[in-house]
Each structure stands twice: as C-alpha cells, then as structure tokens.
Amino acid sequence: MNKKYYRWLILILALLVLTFGAGIISLLSGEMDIPWHTLPDILVQKEGIQYSIVTQIRWPRIVLAFSVGGALSLTGAILQGIYRNPLVEPYTLGISGGAALGIALVVVLGLHLSMGSYMLPLAGFIGSIVTIFLVYTLSFRRGGININRMLLIGVMISFVASSMMMFLMAITSSENLHGIVFWMMGSLDEPNALLIDIMLYASLAGLFISYLFARPLNALRLGEEKARHLGIHSTITLRILFVVASLLTGICVAVTGIIGFVGLIIPHIVRLVIGSDYRILLISSFLGGSFFLIVSDIIARTVIAPNELPIGVITGLAGGLIFIVVLTRANVQSKIS
Amino acid sequence: MAVYLNIQQLVCGYNLGFQLKGIDLKIEKGAFAGIIGPNGSGKSTLFKAISGDLNIQSGLIEMNNKKLSSFSLREKALKMAVVSQFNEVLDVTVEDYVLMGRMPYRRNFQFFETKEDLIIARKYMRLTNVYQYKDHLMTELSGGEQQLAAIARALTQEPELLLLDEPTAHLDISHQVQILNLIQHLNEEMGLTVLIIIHDLNMAGEYCNHLVMMNDGNIHQHGNPHEVLTYQNIETVYNTVVIVRENPVSGKPVVFPVSEKTFKKTTNTSS
How many angstroms separate the Cα of A100 from the Cα of each of A39, A90, A162, A182? Predict the structure, then answer.
C-alpha cells in the first residue's frame, strides 16, 4: 500500500482516539467530578445519581458536541473547497444571519412562549432555508455561476439579515433582547433528545454525501474549468455541495445557535497537517471539529463551575489563539498564500 | 492522413463582444498544429470552442468523425487534454498533482488510485523530467517546472489530442525549448495530435508542421510554416514591419522585427 495511505490511516486513528478520549473526560468532569475508575461500575449498575448525570446530562451533550463540531468543520472544509477561498466558513453565506433573524422574529412576536420548545429551532431552520434559497436562486441564475458573485451575494444577504435583526432588537423589550443574545452566543445545552438525534444523523449523512464528491472536490482544486477538462461536472457538483453544506449548517444553527470559528479554523489546521486531498480532509475535518468542540465544552463547563461559559467564547478564544500560533510557525508560512 | 479535428462554419464567442466569424479548419491526425495571430484575433476563442469552455453558436466541430457535443465530459477527457497558460499553484505534491490526470479513468465509487495509475503517472513524470520532484509541493517548483508538471498531468490522461494554450509564455528560452522538444517528441513518437497557441513566431515556425494564422475572428491563412510565415502575411495581420529569412540549420522560416528607426534609415538611404 502507498505510504500516503498509511499516513491517512494513522491520522484517522489518532483523531478517533483523541475524540474518544475527550468524550471520556467530558463524561467524568463537570460540576460533580467522577473518578475515572468508578465509571465502569456506574455504567454497569445502571442506577444512582451519578448514572443519571453521566447518561442523561453529559452523554447527550457529548453527542451534540460531536455532531455539531463535526458538521460545522465539515461544511467549512467543503465550502472552502468549492469557493477556493480560505476565509469562507459555514456562516459566511448568511445562513447564520438568516437563522438569527428567524429566531429574533419569533422571540419578538412572543411565539416561542405559546408554541412549544420546537418553535425556536424551527424558526432558526426556516430562517436559514430562506437564506439558502435566496443565495441559491440569485447565484445560479442563467445557468452559469460566478463563484465570487455568489460569495458576495451571500455576504450581502448576511448583512441585510443582521441589520433587520438589529432593528428588531432595538425595538423589543430587554427581556426578549436577552433571549436573542443568549441564543446567538450558542449553547450545547439541548434538553430535547429528538433534536440531538436529528443533529447526529444529519451530520453523519452530510459526511457520507460529501464523500461521494471527494473526487470532484479534488479536481475542483484546479478550478472549475480544469476540473471540467478532467471530466468533472463542475457546476452540478457545486450546486449539490452548496445545498448539502448549507442545509447542514442550517440544522446546526437551529439546534445550537451560532458557534463560531470551528468551521473556519479546524479545516485549516487539518489541511496544514495532512494536505488538501479531500479524501482525507473531509473525515479528518469532521473528527477534528468533533474533538475540538468536545474539548471546548469541557472547558466551558468547568472553568467557572457551577456556572457555564458560552461555548462560543471558548471556541473563539482557544481556536483563534491556536490558529495564530500555528500560522506564525515559520514552516507553514509557505503553504498558505 | 485522416482528419482528426474537423471544424466547419464555426461561429462562437461572447454575447456582446468578440465573435469568430465562421471558421473552417481541418487538423490531421498526428499534426503538430500551431495557432498564431495578434492579441484579440480569436486564438483563445477558437481554443475554448474546442476545449468546450465556450458554447458554439453555430457550425460544427467533429473529433475523430464524431460530433464534439455528443461526447460526455468524461469521454472527452479520455480523448483530449488541455494545458493552460496559468497553473493553479496548489499545496499538493507533484505526484498527487500528476495523478489527477487519471481522474477520467476512475470507476464510480473508486476511492484509491490503482497501481496502474501510479505507473502511468510516474512514466510521464520521468518523461517530463519532474520525477525527481515527485514528493515536493507544487508551490516549491519554479514556473517552468510547474508547466512541465502540468504537461505531465495532461499526458497522464493519455489523450489523443493535446491542447496547449501558450505553454511557454513567461518561461526562459531553455524551458521553452525543453517543453517544445518534449511536445515534438510526443507528437512524433506517440502519434499525439497537438494543437498549440503560441505567440513566438520563430518557435512556431521551428516546431509546428501546420500553422493557422488568425486575424479578426477569421483564419487569414493556414498551411505549412513557409506558406504562412511570409513577410506579407505578418505585415498584414500584425501590422508590423518584419524580414523573414531561413534558419540556416533547419531551413525553417525565421522572423526578424525591424525597428521604426532602422526602417526609416533604410527607406531613406534606398530612396
């Protein structure tokens, strides 16, 4: 077997071990620390307060962190690939802005109080779907597409949405304001088991679908025209991947709010480690994002326990600092242009 | 010789801008054909019509007696490879870059390269002299080496027709000659049909056995270098005063520009 494939295998195994290890630590730590050697006993006995904490409070969070971290990082890798722009992240195209606007609208109108716990995620999801639809139809008009125009349209829609949201925030009560801001900061605290399941299956489905396009994504690194010369249907690939990545982002935002930075930095770091071959980049971005978000969640829950920091604070701080350190290491400077 | 590329009454171009005005052209199998002409004469438009990057408005292009539009993208990629003037500078190794040429050969859901893919890629890396850099990143190569790697990638497609858009632009003379020697070798030894856009008239005259001179969306003249590279043709199409002589070794036409100052001096002394 090729040496390259061994490196890939080692990386995947290492990421799996790291993610699994972070999951275990996350199970054990929190407001009530559980010594590691008691964990097997707790799981076998299936009773007691510790069992409830581990399986009903901490485990769902880990599953959610795994799915959301993976999904955001995966969509970041896909979008950076199809736009061939290193600054693109899942929220660049206004999906988060649209979702936030949907949420803000529902909160201001007071619908979330009257219509149950699904209302906020639903509003977020509808907001992002509307945004995706707008960006898609405006960008893919007349058959041809221009990647840069598409990006600009996304950014503009994002601005329009966030301005409208600020308008809503300006005219609403401070209580509603608090609700909107809290949602925007992002949180892995999700009591609804169904939403967690949806998130998990959606992220795994996204990973699977993206792998059907690993080869076209590799060709697209050369640009649309050259990919076409290699027999790749560039435009169809771009359309499908755009929709998949956007939907996945929409679901993430609807369930957990806006958790920044994961989708921007993790694909970059993975790319620096293993190169830009999408056959390895997709899975390792996914696992890298999962690992990163699980670890960030541990920090967010433990630093000021029993209180909890917003997860976005940790991802932004830790992610940004790590990324600056990685970037300024001399030997990677030539790789990023 | 059989006609490989048959173009009839081709009209093609940009909606409001430049248009080809009904081109008729036949390229024989095994030809080393060069497209020459001033900037904006339609070289690239013709090239893009053949490579499929521009839609044809009317007329016909046939490749190997089959309508070009009836090929699927993948079928086309198996017959035709394109090397552009500019290469994407990627952070992938030269070997991975060249291996991308095997993409049209992959089966659905095939995930890894086969041994055969690797053997073919390495064969063409050796031929193009980039094998020594196979584990280097593309970004670490010089412009000339990147162009050689791009040609290796195109050859790895094992095409019948190789399209090259000014592959020697911005390269020094040693890389220019190296690349054109290589293409000539492939053309003669492997029967590859070559269609190349080339600005350097002397290189075009030296290497190509068929030249197509374009002017203002039409073909001004085509034929062997001696027929096309005459001072009359060049002065008409390029609006430039030149002198054409023969290369003492190869016997091919060589074009010498004449500066305005020299031109005035000679016309003054002769009158």
Answer: 39, 14, 8, 11
Instruction: Kindly list the residues from chain B whose CB atom is less than 8 angstroms away from the CB atom of residue A224.
Output: none
Nearest to B109 by CA among A218, A72, A213, A24: A213
Chain A touched by B140 (CB under 8 Å):
yes
Rounded to whole angstroms, how far apart are CA atoms B167 and B147?
7
Q: Which of B51, B112, B156 to mutate to test the interface with A (most CBs of A within 10 A)?
A: B112
- Indicate yes or no: CB of A231 within 8 angstroms of CB of B103: yes
Q: Residue B80, Cβ neighbours under 10 Å: how many?
A: 24
d(CA A1, CA B46): 44
Average pLDDT on A146-158 reads 83
Please provide the CATH number assigned to the domain covering A3-332.
Answer: 1.10.3470.10
Q: How do residues A314-334 score in pLDDT, each as one tens digit?
A: 888 888 888 788 777 755 544
Residue with tokens 């094992």: B158
Segment A302-313 shows an average pLDDT of: 82
Q: Which residues contact B3 (CB under 8 A, 6 or more apart)?
A: B26, B27, B28, B29, B65
- pLDDT bucket at A203, cuts 50 / 70 / 90: very high
Q: What chain A residue is nearest to B113 in terms of C-alpha separation?
A: A2
Rounded to whole angstroms, the Cα distance separating B196 from B183 reads 10
Closest approach of B54 to chain A, Cα-based (Å): 11
Give me the mean pLDDT over the A280-287 stretch: 94
Residue to substitute from B44, B89, B92, B106, interface A, most A β-carbons within 10 A: B92
**B230-251 pLDDT, tens digit each:** 888 988 898 888 888 888 888 8
- Inter-residue contact A262 to A85 (CB < 8 Å): no
Distance of CA A245 to the CA centre of its chain: 10
